[in-house]
């Protein structure tokens, strides 16, 4: 079979895919399951205006409101795990990890501190009753296959460390640091976590299901509730197509996280795990996967998760795939530190483009830089911990900056080009602290 090469999915394949998708999109082939793109964009914009009032305090418009029954902006509706204030900031149906809560942890985010991004709410699924259906015209041999959790566990297992990061992580910095308006959840930098995932390769499952020669896209779909916009438009269940080249490369169907069965909030019993790509690709609570001989579309690769704005084509960029490059200090915003005392500044940097090659830190607003010490062997699709010793000479306000460079040579820029939905913020963040 032409698709058996596990090294498929190199960056060149991904950019070819993006270019093809962009051409199809601009040619008007992109439809979101019967909803015309123009109509949906209008609805999303209208929903943003309608809900601005509820989030006026933060200055953010909310582009797509939560499903019926979701609580107001200060409650985290529909999550199972406790969300103590010391570890999380809750944002609607989502919970953001506080970076300072990682200061005393190891390489991996402890599962109980891992951020949660839910379009609706966490479904409670029975692992014994769960099945995965693989179907579609990209399969041979009868075109449908079912797997129980035990079936998946009998297949060869793979364990790997990787981050999951929301495409909107850092979104609030478009506003607070660049003075720009964006729509969506006002994350700071904590919509990311890294874990050890165990499961079976998606490619293995697709081959057992009978992958056809002409398959091009696979579309995993979650078992959580339909996603309904504020005006009542039902976008259906969360689903986003993935090119077959990536699906066969390094994607997992994960049933364990940090050595334990996947917990409810993170996709129990099985989630898709797409290393290096934006979080939406890693569909939780997966129930079925369509394998298609034609390109597939859903609102999550047409109207969401593309870049729209002055710097982008009229119809938006190609669908987003790889994550960008970021760094964060393990300190609260406006942290107080002792003046004329020794400190060890700690933080983490990560990139979807390649492993982290170096991190430079400034404690004087960017005037001078020192190289941070890395505490992890840099790996693709994962973060590195770093540290730098610092002694603030006098009391007063300081601005800390951390700037990562990845193995592709890309360095965090000073500003991120604006896009209306605030995706892929990658600029160096100016982190205020006070020496007292
Ligand atoms: N079924 C389903 N999968 C989903 C989502 C969802 O709401 N439903 N959210 C996606 C988004 S936008 C992100 S960023 C990640 C978050 O994963 P986590 O909640 O385990 O941190 O899950 C993705 N997978
Ligand atoms: Mo996300």
Characterise the protein shown here:
By secondary structure, this protein is of the alpha+beta class. The protein folds into 2 domains: 3-304, Sulfite Oxidase, Chain A, domain 2 (Alpha-Beta Complex); 325-435, Immunoglobulin-like. The protein contains 7 helices and 21 strands. It has a 5-stranded mixed beta sheet with strand order 4-3-12-7-8. Strands 5, 6, 9, 10 and 11 form a 5-stranded antiparallel beta sheet that branches. A 5-stranded mixed beta sheet has the order 14-21-20-16-17, with no helix packed on it. It starts with 10 loop residues before the first helix and ends with a strand. The model is unreliable at 1-13 and 25-75 (pLDDT under 50). Bound molecules: ligand MTE and molybdenum atom.
Global shape: globular
* Overall tally of domains: 2
Strand content: 25-35%
Percentage of residues in helical conformation: 10-25%
Main sheet, how many strands, which sense, barrel?
5 strands, mixed
Which CATH class of the largest domain applies here? Alpha Beta
CATH architecture of the largest domain: Alpha-Beta Complex
Termini Cα gap:
66 Å
CATH topology descriptor of the largest domain = Sulfite Oxidase, Chain A, domain 2
Question: Which stretches are low in confidence, meaning pLDDT under 50 for 5 or more residues running?
Answer: 1-13, 25-75
């Amino acid at each position: 079979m032409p698709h058996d090469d596990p090294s498929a999915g190199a960056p060149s394949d991904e950019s070819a895919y993006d270019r093809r998708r962009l051409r199809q999109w601009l040619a008007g082939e992109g439809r979101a399951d019967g909803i015309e793109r123009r109509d949906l964009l209008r609805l999303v914009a209208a929903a943003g205006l309608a809900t601005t009032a509820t989030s006026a305090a933060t200055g953010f418009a909310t582009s797509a409101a939560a499903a019926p029954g979701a609580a107001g902006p200060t409650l985290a509706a529909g999550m199972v795990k406790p969300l103590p204030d010391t570890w999380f900031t809750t944002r609607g149906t989502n919970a953001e990890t506080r970076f300072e809560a990682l200061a005393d942890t190891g390489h991996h985010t402890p599962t109980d501190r891992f951020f949660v991004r839910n379009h609706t709410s966490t479904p409670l699924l029975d692992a014994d009753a769960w099945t995965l259906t693989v179907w579609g015209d990209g399969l041979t041999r009868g075109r449908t296959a079912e797997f129980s959790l035990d079936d998946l566990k009998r297949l060869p297992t793979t364990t790997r460390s990787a981050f999951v990061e929301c495409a909107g992580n850092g979104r609030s910095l478009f506003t607070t640091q660049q003075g720009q308006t964006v729509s969506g959840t006002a994350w700071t930098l904590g919509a990311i976590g890294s874990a050890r995932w165990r499961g079976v390769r998606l490619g293995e499952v697709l081959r057992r299901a009978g992958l056809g020669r002409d398959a091009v896209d696979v579309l995993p779909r979650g078992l959580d509730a339909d996603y309904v916009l504020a005006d009542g438009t039902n976008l259906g269940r969360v689903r986003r197509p993935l090119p077959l080249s990536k699906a066969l490369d390094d994607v997992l169907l994960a049933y364990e996280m940090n050595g334990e069965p996947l917990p409810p909030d993170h996709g129990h019993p099985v989630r898709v795990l797409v290393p290096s790509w934006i979080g939406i690709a890693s569909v939780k609570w997966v129930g079925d996967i369509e394998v298609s001989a034609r390109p597939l579309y859903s609102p999550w690769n047409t109207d969401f998760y593309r870049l729209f704005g002055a710097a982008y084509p009229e119809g938006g960029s190609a669908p987003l795939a790889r994550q960008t490059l970021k760094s964060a200090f393990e300190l609260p915003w406006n942290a107080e530190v002792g003046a004329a005392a020794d400190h060890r500044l700690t933080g983490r940097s990560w990139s979807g483009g390649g492993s982290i090659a170096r991190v430079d830190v400034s404690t004087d607003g960017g005037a001078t830089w020192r190289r941070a010490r890395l505490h992890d062997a840099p790996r693709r699709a994962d973060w590195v911990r770093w540290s730098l010793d610092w002694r603030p000479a006098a009391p007063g306000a300081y601005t800390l900056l951390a700037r990562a460079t990845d193995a592709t040579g890309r360095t965090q820029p000073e500003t991120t080009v604006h896009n209306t939905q605030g995706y892929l913020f990658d600029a160096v963040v100016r982190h205020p602290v006070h020496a007292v």
